Amino acid sequence: MTEYKLLFSPVKIGKMELKNRIIFPPMYSRLATEDGYVTQKQIDYYEVRAAGGAAMLTVDAVRVNKRSKFYPNSLGLFDDDQIPGWKKLCDTIHSHGAKVSTQMLHPGPSAGSMHGTVPVGPSPVWASDVRETPQELSLEEIKVIIGEYAEAVRRGKEAGLDSVQLHAAHGYSLIGSFMSPYFNKRTDEYGGSVEDRMKLLLDIIKAIKAKVGQDFPITVRISGDEYRQGSRGIAESQFIAPMIEEAGADALEISAGIVPDSFWQVIPPTGTPPGLNANAAETIKKVVNIPVIAVGKINTPRVAEFILKTGKADIVGIARQIATDPDFPKKAFEGRLDDIVPCMGDNLGCLFGHPTRGHVTCLMNPARARERECVIEPTENPKKVLVAGGGPAGLEAARVAANRGHDVTLMDKANKLGGQINLACVPPMKQEFSRMIKYLSHQANKEGVKIELGKEVTADTIDELKPDAVIVATGAVPLIPDNIPGIDGDNVVTAWDVLAGKVGTASRNVVIVGGGAVGSETADYLARIDDNASILSTKVTIVEMMEEIAMDMGVQPREILINRLRERDVVVLKSTTVKEIHKDGVTIEKKGRLEKIEDIDLVVLALGAEPVNQIAETVKGKVAEVHVIGDALKPRMALEAIDEGREVGRTI
Predict the structure, then answer these.
(1) Is CB count within 10 Å lower at the N or C end of the chain?
(2) Structural contact between residues 604 and 512, judged by C-beta atoms closer than 8 angstroms
(3) Mean pLDDT of the chain
(4) Are both 205 and 320 inside the same structural domain?
(5) Backbone angle region of 124, left / alpha / beta, with phi > 0 → left and psi within -120 to 50 → alpha
(6) Do 592 and 628 reside in the same domain of the chain?
């Protein structure tokens, strides 16, 4: 019997019964054709998640007409010709015992001309996420869109959908913008009072029910609190929830935030509390009689069970964690918590895709959106494999190679596994990244990888072990340019040294050279507030040559970090370069003018990294196969390191 009794108990949405209380909410797969048709890759993507045990999958967010394109390769239900592809997708998901839904999304103000569409909305209010002002919809245009929603659902039902969701949250959906007092300035029947701002959503619900029948389940996603001055708060959401139920909705899904002001609430990243929207769901649950679904960083079975057990929600929506590990429900049911691949909440691969392949991916699951081509199969030719380096690339390569049947030894000259991830865990709100190393280490040990720490791979090692293949995953070291006078001074250290605890942090004035993620997070680490005095213990200045800082981070983690730096009075000098480092300061150049920052105790370099891969040359000619991966090949993100580790382990 499973430990999570409520999580794996059945529940109904309208007359539709779900086998458990886990649903996969909508996420963009970007796997449809450019004109919105289902592809085999998309079917493969959802099939593995259906097989993983979730009760219902919400397939992407679909266009209700050709004009409402929100992102590349977005699915559509605006043409009857799309029905056969949807039927194949629905049949595949049903074959694994899961129900199928999809989210109906007209992006409204956020459509943007970048996608070849004209943004529309309730009023011509500037949409800062796409930096455009939408055209105000006429009453006739509104009636057309209502009909398009109903027709899209009709097509979905014919294809086999069990339910649909209406996106009415976050301000970037057409419905959500009509509901928000910030975007809706109309004075006709679709604006003004709370009730009139609700009219578009209520009319769409009624039109859908009239088209496909009262028993077809509709879920509505709303923001419990939009967290923006002049927008809807939790009290108003509690007021409108019964109106949505009365119109015919069968369940409410409670998210939070509005784009772009509180984007981190929309997709909460690492460092934010687990299940952070559950309290809002509980507030809404008090005033309705239909099921309430909680979403937002529900990434462990314990968090999910707690939300249900304490009555905060009836169902949990688990998106990124199931995107990371499709078998999350199955593993949770069986109590195999150590085998659950953890979602890191970095929000890079899932929102912005792979840096070179384009489609969505995942830091911890490089096979996401490549399910069929990335199958791990037993080797027919077992080899003795030596992995040099125990960071994420080396651990993933070792784990996968051992899983396939190779005899794998991993050596690292450090005394603990993890490589640079050990440093990534140090800045505030980054401790969750330790879960990556815990998982990879556990899996490597479970697969029988022989791990030897405090031992560097050398030519003698090769002569002694005589491996058939060597995987070089030796990482990188900080880049220290030689064209800045004074860079070798005693007051100059690297960000890696600071995060590793090798540098005292008592300095009062610090300049950080380089404002990427590493430099910016190191600034956050140093510019902390004294526990008793409530004043800054260290004044920090970031000098960055680009126009913005931390652009190599996901949008939501960056949003939180920028706010923290602002709260801590970190000075950010953008479009600025360091020309010389002195014993007591630095000379900078900004817009062609030289200035000196005085009274500096410490200069911290965060200028990138350079690969460490000398062993690759050493073993050439001694070993038949040599593979260089991760930062040892070229310093990049952990996403690419794990991707390369998986691929080498899968094909060696």
Answers:
(1) N
(2) yes
(3) 95
(4) yes
(5) beta
(6) no
pTM over 0.90: yes
Query: What is the domain range of residue 419?
Result: 384-477+610-651
Alpha-carbon dihedral sign for residues 255, 260, 265, 268: positive
CB distance 434 to 440 below 8 Å: no
Query: Quick check: is 280 in a domain?
Result: yes
Q: Nearest-CA neighbor of 641 among 433, 421, 441?
A: 421
CB 448 within 8 A of CB 402: yes
Q: What CATH number has the domain bearing residue 131? A: 3.20.20.70
What integer pLDDT is reported at residue 535 of this predicted model?
45
- Report, as residue numbers or ranges, the catalytic residues: 172
Q: Which residue has the higher pLDDT, 113 or 103?
A: 103
Residue that is written with structure tokens 């200028």 in the block: 607
What whole-number distance in Å separates Cα of residue 49 and Cα of residue 333? 15
| pLDDT tens, residue by residue, 296-333 | 999 999 999 999 999 999 999 999 999 999 999 999 99
Residue carrying the six token digits 């009274």:
599
On whether the CB atoms of residues 55 and 23 are closer than 8 A, the answer is: yes
DSSP letter (8 states) at residue 566 = H
Please give the pLDDT value at position 533.
43
Query: What does the pLDDT read at residue 1?
Result: 76
Phi-psi map region of 170: left, alpha, beta (phi>0 left; psi -120 to 50 alpha):
left
Q: What is the pLDDT of residues 59-89, one digit of tens each?
A: 999 999 998 888 889 999 999 999 999 999 9
Q: How many domains does the chain have?
A: 3
- Helix, strand, coil abundance in the chain, percent, nearest 5: 35, 20, 45
Flag whether pLDDT at 420 surpasses 70. Answer: yes
Q: How confident is the model at residue 530 (pLDDT cuts 50, 70, 90)?
A: low
Do residues 24 and 316 lie in contact, with contact meaning Cβ atoms separated by under 8 Å? no
Measured CA to CA, the distance from residue 518 to residue 424 in angstroms comes to 8
Give tens-digit pLDDT for 136-175. Answer: 999 999 999 999 999 999 999 999 999 999 999 987 789 9
Q: Give the largest Cα separation in the chain, rounded.
A: 83
Identify the sign of the CA torsion 558, 562, 564, 568.
positive
pLDDT > 60? residue 529: no
Phi, psi of 575 (to 5 degrees): 55, 40
> CA-CA distance, 456 to 245, in Å (whole number)?
64
Beta partners for residue 252, in sequence order: 220, 292
At residue 537, the pLDDT reads: 62
Question: Which residues have C-beta within 8 Å of that of residue 40, sequence separation ≥ 6?
Answer: 372
Name the domain boundary from 285, 318, 344.
344
Question: Burial letters for 122-131: b for 16+ Cβ neighbours within 10 Å, e otherwise?
Answer: bbebebebbe
- Based on the fold, state whether residues 498 and 471 are members of the same structural domain: no
Using CA atoms, how far residue 624 sits from 459, 647, 650, in Å, is: 14, 18, 17
The predicted pLDDT at position 505 comes to 65
Give the CA distances from residue 528 to residues 438, 542, 565, in Å, rounded to whole numbers and listed in that order: 27, 15, 10
Give the pLDDT of residue 538. Answer: 82
326 and 398, same domain (yes or no): no
CA 572/CA 578 separation, integer angstroms: 13
190-222 exposure pattern, b = at least 16 Cβ within 10 A, e = fewer: bbeeeebbbbbbbbbbebbbebbeeebbbbbbb
Cα(422)–Cα(638) distance, integer angstroms: 12
Give a yes or no: residue 456 inside a domain: yes
Looking at residue 534, what is its pLDDT? 42
